[in-house]
Amino acid sequence: MRFLLAFLLLLTAALTLSARNLEVFFVDVEGGKATLIVSPSGESLLIDAGYDGFNNRDANRIAEAARLAGVTRIDNLVITHYHGDHVGGVRQLAAKLPITNFFDHGPTVDDGERGERLYRAYEQIASRRGRRIRVDPGYTIPLKGMDVLVVAAGGRVLAAVSPVAGPRSPECANLRRDYSGSENAQSIGLLVTYGAFRLLDLGDLMGDTERQLVCPANQIGSVTVFVASHHGNDDANSPAVLYAIRPRVAILGNGVLKGGAPRTVETLHKTPGLEDIWQLHYSFLASMRHNAPLPFIANRDQDCIGRWLKLTAQSDGSFTVYNAGTGFQKTYSPN
C-alpha cells in the first residue's frame, strides 16, 4: 500500500510539472532590467539583474518573483551588457540565490573607470559562484521543452538567414548609420520559443546593429511578444524592426523618468498586428496619450512599490498578461 501511495504521489507530481506553462516575470527595477523566465520544466533563466545598492531593492524584488514562481535558484543568468542598470545587481542577487550559469558577450568595451569596475565585479562573481559562458549569435541556451536562441551578441547578429526568416522590410531603404560602439550595442539578444509562442528581447540593442536583424532580410520572422529595446527609448525600436517582427504585444520596461519615449509608443501603435502595450511604469516624460491605458501599467505613481507584470504562455501560442499593480489581466488567443 505504501509503495502504491508513493507511486501515486510521484505520478501526481510529474503530471503537475508537465502541465506547467511558460512563465515570465517582468520585475520592476525602476528603469533597469530584470526578466525572470521559468520554463515548463521548472528551469529558470534571468535576463539581467537590475541595479546595485538601494538597500538590496532590486535583488529583493527578483528574489520575491523567484519565490512566487517556485524557484529556489537561478539556473541561467544572462547579462545582456555591463551597464549598471543591468549588471549592477548581480552581487546582491548572488548573496540571496545560488546562480549556476552566467552567460555574457565577453569583455566590456567601456573603458571608463565605472564601466571597468562594473565588469570586474561581475567577472569575479561569475568565476567564483558558477560557470561563466561567453555566447555568440547562433548559440542556444539549453532549457528543456523550449528554445532560447542568441540572435545578437558582442556587436554582431546572426550571420545567416534562419529557417523562420521572413520577407525584406520596406523600411530598410531608410536606414541611417548610428552605431554608437558602446556596451548597449554589445547587448545579447534572445529569441525565446515555446511551441507557437515567441518572445524577442534584444536588451539595449539599438541603431544599425538592431536593424541588421531584419535588413536586408528578416532573420527573426514574426514574434508574439516584443520586449521593447533600450527601455523603450527612441534610439531603438525602429519601424524597420517593428514592422518586420509584427508583435502582438509589446512590454515596456521603462522607469518613471526613463524610457517609454513618445516616438517609440507612436511607432508601436502603427505596427501592423499590435494589439496592446504594457508598461512597468507610467512615464512622466510623456503625455497620457503616449502612455498605455492605466490598467496596462503596473506602477502609476512616482513613488512606486515595485509591482510586476507576469506573462503565462501556452505552447499553442495563447498567453495571459497579469498586472500585479492593478489586478487586471488579459488573455490572448492563439494566432
Can you walk me through this structure?
- This protein has one domain (22-332): 4-Layer Sandwich (Metallo-beta-lactamase, Chain A), CATH 3.60.15.
- Helix content is 23%, strand content 25%.
- The model is unreliable at 3-18 (pLDDT under 50).
- It is globular.
- It contains eight helices and 18 strands.
- Helix 8 (262-270) links the parallel strand 13 and strand 14 (276-281).
- With 335 residues, it is of the alpha/beta class.
- Strands 6-5-4-3-2-1-16-17-18 form a nine-stranded mixed β-sheet, covered by helices on one side. Strands 7, 8, 9, 10, 11, 12, 13, 14 and 15 form a nine-stranded mixed β-sheet that branches.
List the helices and strands and how they pair.
Elements: H1 2-18, E1 22-26, E2 35-38, E3 44-47, H2 57-68, E4 74-78, H3 84-87, H4 90-94, E5 99-104, H5 113-129, E6 131-134, E7 140-143, E8 146-153, E9 156-157, E10 189-194, E11 197-201, H6 207-211, E12 225-227, H7 239-245, E13 249-252, H8 262-270, E14 276-281, E15 297-299, E16 309-313, E17 319-323, E18 329-332
